Amino acid sequence: MNANLLLRIAMAIILLTHSIFGMFNNGINDFGNLFLNQIGFAPYGVFLAWSIKLSHVFAAILLLANKYIKLAGLVTIFVFVIGIILVHFQEGWFVVGGGRNGVEYNFLLIIVLLAIMYPNGIIKKQQK
User: Fold this and answer.
1) Are 73 and 36 in contact (CB under 8 A)?
2) Of these four, 30, 86, 103, 112, which has the most CB atoms within 10 Å of its CB?
């Protein structure tokens, strides 16, 4: 089993668990109503929340199937960056310890997605 496969499995598990539990405990609707609508996305907060979580589910499936990896990664990175801007940046860097709900976890997930998307590096060496 290579490192890229392990990263794809780990990322898929994270995306699925983060999304599926919210589907069954009203977390997605609460996120839409109690957060997104309150910060200016009304009346589309619930729609946006479901769109985000469903994009995570589809990205997880694509990562596991090893199909459309760059598309899945770009959409998910976009969601994470918006999450950093709207939610996590104001809380600082640390998720726990030196703070709460900060940027560090999303930062790590973005780097993992980039590693999955570009297993041989982003910049290609010139052939001689």
Assistant:
1) no
2) 103
